[in-house]
Specification:
By secondary structure, the protein is an all-alpha fold. It has 5 helices and no strands. It is elongated and about 85 Å long.
């Protein structure tokens, strides 16, 4: 930039560029874009979480999930919703039946003599 200070189309603040002087370091990090093989990453993260080497939140971050807490809450809500839909005994209330409830229904049933 300093080499172009005297050019007529130089758009940066010339005073700031002059104040920089020669006391600076620059580094360019160039990374080639790798193909996103999401299936392999999901398989790897599944094994890591099942083995206890990675948390689910960490795995979600590695997959690129932006708001992990929100996504975990969404997943939990969907699980609860599915459990309520397919629970034939509790009729969708999501609470386990207590042994006292079972005893009271047994007492109300007619007994064969």
């Amino acid at each position: 930039m300093q080499a172009r200070l005297n050019e007529p189309n130089f758009a940066y603040n010339k005073e700031v560029v002059r104040l920089i002087g020669n006391d600076y370091d620059n580094e360019i990090k160039f990374a080639l874009p790798l193909p996103d093989n999401r299936k392999e990453l999901v398989d790897l993260l599944t094994v890591e979480t099942a083995s206890g080497f990675e948390s689910i939140a960490g795995a979600m971050r590695r997959l690129g999930v932006e708001n992990v807490k929100s996504k975990q809450q969404e997943i939990d809500n969907e699980k609860k919703s599915r459990m309520k839909m397919f629970d034939p005994y509790n009729e969708g209330n999501g609470e386990p039946e207590t042994p006292e409830d079972e005893e009271s229904t047994e007492d109300n049933e007619p007994h064969a003599l």
